[in-house]
Amino acid sequence: MQVDIFTQVIVPVIGGLGIFMLGLEFMSNGIQSLAVNKMRSLLAKIAGTPVKGVIAGTFITGVIQSSTAMTVMVVGLVNAGVIGLRPAISVIMGANIGTTLGNGLIALPLGPLGLLLAGIFALVHIFAKTDKVKNIALACMGFALIFYGLNLMTGGLRPLRAMPEVMGVISSLRADSFMGLIYCVLIAAGITAMIHSSSATIGIVMGLGAAGILDWKTAVAFSLGADLGTTITSWMASLNLTKNAKRAAYAHISFNIIGVMVTIPLFFVSMDVLTWAMQWFGGDPGVPVIKDGKETFPLVPVAIGLYSTFFNIFNTVLLFPFVGVFESVLMKVGANATGDREDYTQPKYLSAAAASDPVSAVPAVQRETGRYLEAARQFLDIAKGSENAPDKIEEHYAAIDILNREIRSYTSGMFKADMHYARADLVASLIEEEDQTASLGEALYQIARRIERQPFGEVGRGLVNSLVDQVEDALRAIIPIDQVNPPVTAQAEPRLKALAEMRERCLRLGAELPWVERGAILALLGSAERAYYLIERIDSERKSVSRVVPVAAQSQTRGAEGFGGAAVPA
Fold first, then answer.
1. What pTM was computed for the model?
2. SS3 label, residue 290
3. Nearest of 83, 90, 95, 101 to residue 320 by alpha carbon
4. Which of 108, 496, 552, 555 is 20 to 30 A off residue 229, Cα-Cα?
5. Secondary structure letter of residue 507 according to DSSP
6. Residue 468 CB-half CA count within 13 A
7. Vertex 112: Cα angle to 106 and 118 (nearest 5)
8. Would you say 230 and 209 are in contact if contact means Cβ atoms under 8 Å apart?
9. What contacts 557, CB < 8 A, 6 or more positions away?
10. CA–CA gap between residue 192 and residue 118 (Å, rounded)
11. Predicted confidence band at 231 (pLDDT cuts at 50, 70, 90)?
């Protein structure tokens, strides 16, 4: 069969890759814009522990019959901050088992279905009236495009299977020695990496083995390589995403690599075991059966299915006790000389068990709010180009936005129907402080973004650096959050004079300060002024209601409950 390489291979492969990556971004953005707190809570019930994560990964992947889609989805959820690294690791473990439960997905017309669903959800997204519906449609459209993109890539490489040169290379391989085994594994891994589906590769190998083109042990070796090659999709999915998303992909890769490295030395022994086990499933897979005058090997697919299932179960059982070790090692991935970046998508101090106990909950909220402020201050590191600054400003902004929503959701949950006024007043004050800190984070983000986007000359850079230093000095009034005697005042008025002087200097400079830089600096002065007023308001809010919760408040009755030791009228 004549194959047009450009139209039948290059176009669908490159187009499918672009659609696949776009679908992943749409899904991640849609999920992140939805109610992240509710999503995290829901997933915590499904995969809150490593055991539940494995079960959830096995079940869901067994239903959709695609570990690729499942792994890509998990990477996207990690990138959106919906689930943490440890639950993701266990879910990916389960996905490896779930994909062996069948190969039904290959026979389904998921490409046209994915395109149809993507079109439907695209129309919903365009005509929706509310942001919630738009974001749900965006996430669903992204997931549908992932399937369609994978289908395009698979279809683009399918014509290669009909090329005699390709089939000649495959049929000439035999896994009758360690070197032959390694070649088979690597070639199968490469094929799977190209078509992005271990199930598809295994289906092809089953057909080749059943037709007698491949020796049955060689076919089994190819299935081992398919489990290795499928990791390329999760790696591709993690490109340009957060470090935790990359770590989730690396977890998938490391599981399968370790499993293959352990299994290869045991391959020939396992073939003897498989031959013995096959007596309960029809007999020796290497014995041909004559059908329509031709030799066939109907038991080869059975042997491949058994071995693939055993491999993934064995791999999970072997590595499951080391989930914590994997997490610790992976957390070091991407670390630089100054240490790895803190994951601000995950609260550090908020505990669901302590939410109803103000003695524990109030200090936890304060510490988490202080953590948010420390993260917001890092925008100034970005503005100054510090070595320890976050790599990507938009990624950092999205992370602390998730953290702020977590803090406000947690604090709102502290309200109770029968809560006394004094306690409600404190919770309300905490929420107001959180709102002001979020506004401060937005102001600092605007400063960093304007400086990052606008190149400055020597004169302009000097003014900008002076302004950033002044804002950073003002933040010392509220950071760290637990200081008793701040080294500087939080009042905005004393700092406005310096802004006015900088504005006048900016306007009086001649040609040495280009007009575009002048405009950017004037905009920065406005952001700095907002930051000063917000710092003052945050400080005033902290002083308006005492943050000290006496232990005695827990035992006070509803009619005499207060935070200062005295009864407060209802």
1. 0.56
2. strand
3. 90
4. 108
5. H
6. 25
7. 115
8. no
9. none
10. 25
11. confident
